[in-house]
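Hi there, hope your week has been kind to you so far. For a while now I've been wondering how a particular protein folds. I'm sending you its amino acid sequence along with the backbone structure tokens. Could you read through the record and tell me how the tokens relate to the sequence? Take your time with it, there's no hurry, and the full record follows here.
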Amino acid sequence: MFINNFNKKLNIGTHIIPLPIDREYNIDELFDSALTGSFFEKLDANGKFTRKEKVLFENNEFIVSDIYKTLKPFDIIRLTLKRPIIIKWKVSFTSSSFIKKQVLKINDNYNKKEALHLMQLCSLIYEPEKKIKEKITQQYKFNDFFYFSKRSHKSMWSKGFLKLFYIFLKSRISIVDLQFMKLSRYDKDIKKEIIILVFQGSQELEDWITNISMKETHYFGKEKVHQGFYDSLKIFLRTISNKKFSTKEKKMYHLNKDIDFLNENCKIILTGHSLGGAIATLAGCYFHDLGIKKENISIYTFGAPPVGDEAFSTTYEFKLNLYRVINENDIVPKLDKITRLRHFGEEIKLQSNENEIHICSDYIDNLIDALQYEN
């Protein structure tokens, strides 16, 4: 079978395809992100389909074993598709569907592609710093990268979970940790430096202590917010207080001082998954109060809990471009049902498949679904 042109929509279900390609290709050159969640099998020398494997998608690349990273001419594969895909192949090969090293395109309103891009960054920050830096360098086009991690509770963990939890609830100690990264690049279209702050969420059991505790405190002496989130915000503010960053043109600035410079030359995007989304929300409120204009701040949160009481939420309801992306079955955003904390901003609800609830891969998968339905 030799095909000069192959342009076809494959629906949900199982398909057997002899690959009509003229040389070896990486899997992400042949398929777009809609393939994630589907299963690959390859026909072996004995005429049997073996090595069944689920395809995942992170950091703008497919996560597969080596046997599927590169596909050869006329390999015969069996695809069990989770969602419809469109493939456009030519023997003299060009493709309109392959995954490119993405550059974030800035939009004034909620954008599904922007959300998927940011959610992948939220997933990446759970990785060790070395891997994060490697992916930022290879997969994304940023001029600047800064990473911070404070995990002071690790030394206390040896005291035992139950004892530590009891002490925390009695407010004898405060358990706070923070991991975030700051990225930036110059956007020629809007002629501004794009600054992205990505806050890590609840990856480990002890991180949920901060989420579960519902103790409140005053946000800079005003309305009440969740104390754990507020304490994490204060660590962030101390970290950036005297830290100078640089634009592509080597202009130096402080994130918390050079307000006129930021308004004229920069666009700030804050994002985070779970607990990270709560911190991103509070950081957005802080930047607004400093004087950063509404059009220069966007906040994308994924599976984030509510952060403040009704008075706090009312105060900031129309002051920020806040997009709260939630899976419909995720219980974390629903903590407003059992606490005094309330949400604000625009809610973007994603349809969830069975067992897709809160983790990063669930959000990535459902965002890809939303993009496919749009197309």
